[in-house]
Amino acid sequence: MRKRYNKSSQAFLFNLWIVAAILCLPIVAVAQDAPYTPATDQIWHNYTVKNNFTIGWRDNTVSGNDDVYRTFKDLRTGVRLLDQSLELNSLDRKGLLFDRLTLNSFGFGGDPNAIARLNVSKDKWYEFTARFSRDLIYFDYNLLANPLNPSSPTPLPAVNQSPNQWYTARRMTDLDLTLKPLSGFTTRLGYSRNVEAGPSISAFHIGQLSGLETETKQEVSTTFDHYRLGVDMRLIPKTNISFDQSFQYFKNDSNWTLANTPLQLTNGTAVDPGIDFPAGIGCNPVLNPLTTPATANPACTGALSYERTAPSRSRWPMSTLSLQSRPNDRIEISAQGMYSAGSTDLYNENSLFNGLLSFGQERTIQTSNSAHPHRVLVGNDEGITFRFSRRLRLSDSFHFNATRSPGLAHTIQTEFFGTTLNTTPEVFSTATCPSPFTAVTCPQHGFFSPPDLTDLVSNNYYGLQERMNFIQLQYDLSLHMGGSFGYRYRKRLLDVHTQWTANEIFYPTFAMRGDCSSQTPDANGVCNIQVNDSESEHDDYDEHSLVADLWARPMENMKGTIAFEWSHADGTYTRIMPKQTIQLKLKGNYQPKKQFDLGYSVNLKQATNDTTGINGHQHDRNLVLHAAFTPEQKWGGNLEYSFSDVYSAIRICYPDFAIPTNALICNNNAAYLDTTSLYTSHSHSVVGTLRFSPAKRVNAFAGVSYVHNDGDTLLTNVLDPFGTVRSVVFQPTASVEVQLKERVKWRTTYDYYGYGENDNTGPVLPRNFHAHNLMVALHYSY
């Protein structure tokens, strides 16, 4: 699944010299050729025809971490159809089946992204658009969710890749047909399909309490279908009424199995010890490192097998009615209403774990689950603009959105227990486990063992309602200056309710554990108990905002805008949401001459949430400076610099296996550390391009992109490196295009991709890479 693809630098230089030599030949030929005459359109059966394509060959050389290169770029060696286009236009707009046809595509032949688009239309009758795209998704950035295990105790199974990897193909199709687009009654039909399939790796937690963190092999199989029907009615002057009905269907047939078994028991049975081994906690999963593979400790947590299926089906119909009208020159009205009632059905989610969770002495866990959540969406948007005069306008908009999602879930879980991976779990029976319930044939429970049988029914409800009103007054002082001032009010209502009932059975030995710790078992030593619980949350928050902006154009070649927004809310329903926000935006542009363009933009945002226990502070500051110059037709370019400063600090609680002495703990719970989650990022980016034409038929292009990231963040693992927080990206590029003949162009392009992290790599493979891509292409038009 993961392959290293490295070529020597000598081989790359050899290829570069070959291409340079090939490139020189057409340039010499051009210098000796006759004067160049541009190609003319072809005529075919009363249509003008333009057809061209570019086909090329790419040489790719990668040194360093090939998985990270494929995650970021994934351009490989081979022949590619770089682009293709076909255009037919009727000469007199009297084509038999169509007046205009265009077909465009690029990326076919092996690139990660490929798209083809077809558009066919006949004036006054129809317009048809078809689009197909294919994405090859490769993801393995080995820091994502990596537990970064310590080097002691040794030897531990190494985890050099991300526990979350993706190697899927996604194919998307979109079909749209519009009938009589210029008439007073227009019909729109559409269909879309999105299919994603392929292997992936997912980190998965098995069990409760300590459990087992492992990698599962996930076979992704999802299908999304979207049917659309719409009509536009222009039966009233200056008024358009539209109705849209859509039906969305989603199918998920993914399944999960155990991904890796790097160890073995003494009898040769393969074992997965998991991927997370905190320092100083638990037993060493390796009993004998000298065998091949190493022998596992049967008393440690591990998995012998795991299987899970969870087929689900979802349906989401949606109806939308909208109106746009301008009854006179002073009033503009718009309105839209939406309603959707959908559901998801999970009938038979099943999972089976065979192994050992040593903390609770769980040997096998069998789970069956079904769920039937529903979702109702109601939305309404209305707006009106009244023009008092040519300079003065007043607008008012109202937004309403309500989401309700009730759901029912039913879970049955059966567990069997044992003390090691070598033992066979015992099934309870009065014949093999008689009183006083101490026989070795009794189920082997511990103090932390969960119930033997759990039948859980839960009812859940999630409701969110939002109402917003925004009123704005706009005034143009003159043709050179104007502004606006507005007020926005937003109200949010959140309701969350959960109610569940669990029927639990605890078998001996040690039936008086968990929820049965204060109960008396029956004559067979069995404890039956029903546990009921419920939780609810109701939040009601108001937010007020003031919005103002000013624009100015003192000269025809100079313009600028400034915008300001202040918001304050009396509460939030997530910890990362701010209660107060201040934002300032500035943007300007100046053209001293027609061939030069200068501009800048500034975005300053400050957000806080001073609620006790949260103490959140955030800011986001951005600066962009750009210049474009085209002093002559033969050459030109642009240069852009951007700076980004991001800061976030918020109090968090997280579990830690080794709480330092005198450390601040959460709510007097010694297992949770109270600290500040910090994230800072300072990013500098420079992008420059230069184009020039050294000869009549020769065009050249050069460019460079450089990004330097430096920052800091809370690292809860001493082995954890900073990754992309402290990194450098360098991407220069150069290309030469030569017009060989009337319809033939030769193009050579070189791209370099360099990525490096300015920090220790941690106990995993370094993520730095250097990639050279050389493309030789031929463009032909006819």
Mean pLDDT: 90
Assign the structural class, choosing from mainly alpha, mainly beta, alpha/beta, alpha+beta, or little secondary structure: mainly beta
Low-confidence stretches: 1-37
Q: Strand percentage, roughly?
A: over 45%
What's the gyration radius in Å? 33 Å
Number of strands: 35
Query: What is the CA–CA distance across the termini?
Result: 42 Å
Shape: globular
Described by strand count, sense and barrel closure, the largest sheet is: 31 strands, antiparallel
Q: How much helical structure, as a percent, in the residues? A: under 10%
Per-chain topology:
Elements: H1 9-32, E1 42-44, E2 47-64, H2 66-72, E3 78-90, E4 100-106, E5 113-122, E6 126-139, E7 165-179, E8 185-206, E9 212-233, E10 239-252, E11 255-258, E12 263-264, E13 270-271, E14 286-288, E15 295-296, E16 302-309, E17 312-325, E18 331-357, E19 362-371, E20 374-387, E21 392-417, E22 453-478, E23 481-506, E24 527-555, E25 558-569, E26 580-590, E27 596-609, E28 616-632, E29 635-655, E30 665-666, E31 669-695, E32 698-713, E33 727-741, E34 744-757, E35 769-781
Antiparallel strand pairs: 1-2, 2-3, 2-35, 3-4, 4-5, 5-6, 6-7, 7-8, 8-9, 9-10, 9-11, 10-17, 11-16, 12-13, 14-15, 16-18, 17-18, 18-19, 18-20, 19-21, 20-21, 21-22, 22-23, 23-24, 24-25, 25-26, 26-27, 27-28, 28-29, 29-31, 30-31, 31-32, 32-33, 33-34, 34-35
